[in-house]
Write a sequence for this structure.
């Protein structure tokens, strides 16, 4: 406890009810509530801006014929980024020292990025594959000894169906980095000769 509060408590004869009242009298409740209200308004404004930017991002993706899943993913990334900026701004308005928070978020992001580098590389490769479309569904592709008909492509894997009918889940990073053979149809097998 603060020394002034202890002295005030002792001067009142140790009566806890009067001590609590004197402690509450020194608080500027109107100022605290108005500061909290402004912080809530800041968060609300950033939330509205985040929703608008998310919708705009998804509309731009649709107008450029980008995969709908990718457009939704990019919209969520934009929304979360704007909301994080809003949270930092609102906390700063409340008097919280956000420099340590921002530094901590940066270090946490670096550590997570390093720990999840393979997942992140697959997601980024998936985004680029969905944007550039080096192959489409029903193309026959071959990469690093794996080959098959493209069934689907998402942010992490491209699913192929091989000649035996089995599904192959190829990480997108492999498809983006390695040489890739794409054809409209499966090559004829040499077993028929």
């Amino acid at each position: 406890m603060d020394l002034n509060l202890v002295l005030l408590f002792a001067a009142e004869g140790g009566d806890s009810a009067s001590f609590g009242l004197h402690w509450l009298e020194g608080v500027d409740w109107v100022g605290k509530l108005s500061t909290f209200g402004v912080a809530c308004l800041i968060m609300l404004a950033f939330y509205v801006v985040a929703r608008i930017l998310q919708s705009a991002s998804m509309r731009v993706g649709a107008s450029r014929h980008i995969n709908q899943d990718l457009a939704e993913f990019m919209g969520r990334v934009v929304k979360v980024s704007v909301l994080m900026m809003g949270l930092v701004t609102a906390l700063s308005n409340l008097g919280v020292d956000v420099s340590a928070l921002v530094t901590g978020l940066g270090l946490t992001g670096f550590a997570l990025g390093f720990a999840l580098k393979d997942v992140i590389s697959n997601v980024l490769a998936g985004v680029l594959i969905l944007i550039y479309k080096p192959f489409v569904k029903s193309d026959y592709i071959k990469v690093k000894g794996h080959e098959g008909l493209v069934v689907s492509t998402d942010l992490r894997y491209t699913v192929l169906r091989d000649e035996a009918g089995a599904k192959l889940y190829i990480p997108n990073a492999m498809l983006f980095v390695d040489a890739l053979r794409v054809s409209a149809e499966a090559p004829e097998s040499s077993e028929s000769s």
